Amino acid sequence: MAGFVEDEDELRSFRGECLCGGVRYVLHGTPRKLRLCHCHQCRSGTGAAFNVSVPVEEDAVSFEARDTIREFESSPGKFRAFCGTCGAAVYSRRTSRPGNLRLRGGLIRDLPRAEDLRHIFWKDRWPWIDTIDDAPKSPAEEPAA
Ligand SMILES: [Zn+2]
Ligand SMILES: [Zn+2]
Predict the structure, then answer these.
(1) In a domain, 27, yes or no
(2) pTM of the model
């Protein structure tokens, strides 16, 4: 049965889209790995508490729209791509690892949890990040006071 599940995973595809729709892609296959990166660069580059990074092979991504993509070289050989219209972080890539992209998970609406899920740069996390599960949860916006 394991083989069956694997085949199903390979048949699945996921749509990614930035906030303005200027970047759109289809990711073919279920991501095997997710990395939650707590480094300061990822926070600054995404505006989020941590970056949900989805390492994939470039071949698995079919871009339907990508004209608005801009790239910023955040450290030598490391490029962070974002949408030049809405500012969404789209992926990062390293020249030392051609053919690999690290997609930014927030663009993928129904991103499933991968078996291989790991926090990285945990030492750089906001010290209170481990307590966020305890915070009250509003179904949508915060109720009016
Ligand atoms: Zn956009
Ligand atoms: Zn990072």
Answers:
(1) yes
(2) 0.90
Ligand nearest to the CA of 75: 2
From the CA of 86, how far away is ligand 1's center (Å)?
A: 4
User: Is 144 within a domain?
Assistant: no
For ligand 1, the distance from its centroid to the CA atom of residue 28, given in whole angstroms, is 21
Domain that holds residue 21: 9-123
Structurally, the chain folds into a number of domains equal to: 1
* Separation between Cα atoms, residue 25 and residue 7, nearest integer Å: 21
Phi, psi of 40 (to 5 degrees): -65, -35
Residue 60 lies in a domain: yes
Residue 91, token pair as written in the block = 């992926």
Q: Which ligand is nearest to the CA of 17?
A: 1
Domain assignment present for residue 143? The answer is: no
Distance 136 CA to ligand 1 centre (A): 31
Ligand showing the shortest atom-to-Cα distance for residue 86: 1
Kindly give the distance from the C-alpha atom of residue 90 to the centroid of ligand 1, in angstroms, as a whole number.
9
pLDDT digits (tens, 9 = 90+) for 45-102: 999 999 999 999 999 999 999 999 999 999 999 999 999 999 999 999 999 999 999 9
Cα 138 to Cα 90: distance, rounded to the nearest angstrom: 28
